[in-house]
Design a protein that fits this description.
With 106 residues, this protein is α+β, with helices and mostly antiparallel strands. 60% of the residues lie in helices and 15% in strands.
């Protein structure tokens, strides 16, 4: 198993744990703004852990941050979205052909 595979398994395990603790996305969905607030709290916990307890504690909090970010993406990026790689990284919604890059609609 590669390091990347191992990391994604850890994120998935943390996602499952969070689903058990807080409910699934169907049971407890959030707006993107709410997810950003939750992510900010997780990041602050990681910074606090790093200052008070060191790198290993911070990594545990970063894993939680990654799992929360994953949940946000799972909820809000639906079938039909794909990442278009070019000079800029843009999101393109294939069904209605809306391209969004750097926070603006084109």
């Amino acid at each position: 198993m590669t390091d990347k595979q191992r990391i994604y398994r850890l994120i998935n395990a943390e996602r499952q744990y969070q689903d058990c603790q807080h409910g699934t996305l169907d049971e407890n969905s959030h707006s993107i703004g709410e997810w950003l607030i939750i992510l900010e709290a997780e990041l602050n916990e990681a910074k606090h852990s790093w200052v008070k307890m060191g790198e290993k504690a911070a990594l545990f909090e970063i894993l939680q941050f990654a799992a929360v970010a994953s949940a946000c993406l799972e909820q809000h990026i639906k079938v039909g979205w794909s990442l278009v790689r070019g000079k800029e990284r843009d999101w393109e919604y294939n069904e209605v052909n809306i391209r969004v890059g750097r926070g603006t609609k084109r």
